[in-house]
């Protein structure tokens, strides 16, 4: 869920280099989606629509949700937790089962607390526990123990009150001082439980973040991914969700194949009709000076007169899409722009940078406020050859020199799993459009 345009671009490049497609023109054959959305499609088939779950009532306490809220919609809130090796991805959706459809209701969450971090903490625990042993503190043996912990001990762990064992050697391996007997290292159950705690805490914090901003009350949580095979992780999360009257479940088997199977289902069924913006997106531009605007007055010293004779202020952030906005796949976000060029030959192409704001302001306007929270997401390039042929020269207000003004709209579709863009303009009263290429900063 944490991967954005830059990473998507690298995947597309890898697909081409690997020979899965023969040319750049075939990139339209490649479809990318988040792991969270793939996992949702898997859960629909294997959990949500299963007979087992359909016969299980979902008890929602009046203490948490009022009757007024229940009357507003027949949708149910679902959060899918994809607990993998490296990341834990959480995605929240509203669900309707007749017919089955989903809408994303909160920005996706991603935290680096997957199962490999439990193993990493186990390796640190082993190094500390065996640091005084001349033989068993050997890095090779520690690595062997950590590998066995990862493949078996971690998955079998269920009770902090009972010790856990790492079976790493032969019957001749023993050192009672370090709890090693018959090729087994004994670990205190509570020590093993503590290894899981940061991951469990991260999941709960991410869940509460999504529940807080979700537009639909959360009734159900599905746990998938390789880490979902851990009975202790499942038990601790179930312990948390039970008092909240939230139904908590995981597939009976092959939860580690949820993304692969769900991706196929995504292409066939395409159940998600809208998604939520994870950040605020917009463009850097120079805005007309407004003498009555206090923000403009505070930046009066930055103002300048443009070639057309208008006073403008630089460093303005024109937002296209605010964080948390629910966007359908077909919804277009359109903003009008113009570019000044000194020659007609320079009018045949244009580029516009899309910026991303990840700060705390609900509606950011100025790049000189929280500047570090802004970054360039990508640059949109468009061919304006057709439009340039319709341009007429204008004269500058100051020196009567010739210039050309290109008026066009940038159209962005944020509702897909990937950003899509177009450039549009009017030609003899008819709207014309041109596909735009998107290049992400690396």
What features would you describe in this structure?
This protein has about 450 residues and is of the alpha+beta class. It is built from eleven helices and 21 strands. The strands form four sheets. A seven-stranded mixed sheet has the order 8-7-1-2-3-9-13, sandwiched between helices. It is elongated. Residues about 50-70 have low confidence and may be disordered.
How far is the N terminus from the C terminus?
Answer: 19 Å
Could you give the count of β-strands? 21
The unreliable regions are 51-72
Helix vs. strand class: alpha+beta
Apparent shape: elongated
Q: What is the CA-atom radius of gyration, in angstroms? A: 28 Å
- Average pLDDT across residues? 86
Number of helices: 11
Helix content: 25-40%
Let me know the largest β-sheet. Answer: 7 strands, mixed
